[in-house]
């Protein structure tokens, strides 16, 4: 028998885990895991960049009276930094568009807002929360007085606040408005000319700039300063880090399983038979 016909000798020692991991198959799997982890790392950095406000508004910034156009423009959503910003507005009321919004809390007491439709000097349409009333009768009476007395240009000071979002009425009155939403009020104003502000104006002048109509000033304190940390984005960033780490763990686990199977085969144990016994 020549040496060429001799069966190959079995290895004297089983392979180590390191030797298995250095085989081309597992090196290729590692490269794939690196690519996946790199993608997750990019997403991680993107989420982290959105998790921290590196230029927060200084304390009390919303109490400075800014020009309306510096805060928000018609048709645009108000930036979070300017939500609740004080400003001055001037324009003329649109008669017949004074409406009542229900479920309004003022210093802990539930009541009603009387709202109006102001056309600014620039020709834009602005929803205005004029004042608060304790009862619906008082609110309706104030709206009627405003309808009768609103004429000429008015000037008011207040805050620009983001749209609360329109919701369907759930009570007996299908026309009840329970949210201060310019979109919902626009549907009741009828035909309008010019652009419309998405945010609304909460006036600190309860007579609407015309006369005493029996309303109470709306309680509108300065908005609380928000945390400079966006916890939701930070949570997502942690998730991407876990996914990246898991891709390496998966590679390690698969390579180790292959190594353990070879150890069982080296010891003369049929791993399939062990699986059947289990």
Oligomer: single chain
Mean pLDDT: 85
Tell me the helix content.
Answer: 25-40%
> Segments where pLDDT lies below 50 for 5+ residues?
1-7
Question: What is the radius of gyration?
Answer: 34 Å
Tell me about the largest β-sheet.
5 strands, mixed, barrel
Please state roughly what percent of the residues sit in beta strands, choosing from under 5%, 5-15%, 15-25%, 25-35%, 35-45% or over 45%. Answer: 15-25%
Strand order of the largest sheet: 1-3-4-6-5
Shape: elongated
Total domains: 2
Structural class comes to alpha+beta
Distance between the termini: 44 Å
**Helix-strand pattern:** HHHEEEEHEHEHH
Count of extended strands: 6
How many individual helices? 7
What structural keywords apply?
18% strand, alpha+beta, 278 residues, elongated, disordered N terminus
What is shown here, in short?
With 278 residues, the chain is α+β, with helices and mostly antiparallel strands. It has helices at 17-21, 24-49, 68-71, 136-149, 182-189, 231-266, 271-277, and strands at residues 85-93, 99-106, 109-120, 125-133, 153-161, 200-203.
Report on this model:
The protein is an alpha+beta fold. It folds into two domains: 14-49 and 230-277, no CATH class; 61-203, no CATH class. 36% of the residues lie in helices and 18% in strands. It contains seven helices and six strands. The protein has helices at residues 17-21, 24-49, 68-71, 136-149, 182-189, 231-266, 271-277, and strands spanning 85-93, 99-106, 109-120, 125-133, 153-161, 200-203. Strands 1-3-4-6-5 form a five-stranded mixed beta barrel. Strand 2 and strand 3 (109-120) form a beta hairpin. Helix 2 runs antiparallel to helix 6 (231-266). The model is unreliable at 1-7 (pLDDT under 50).
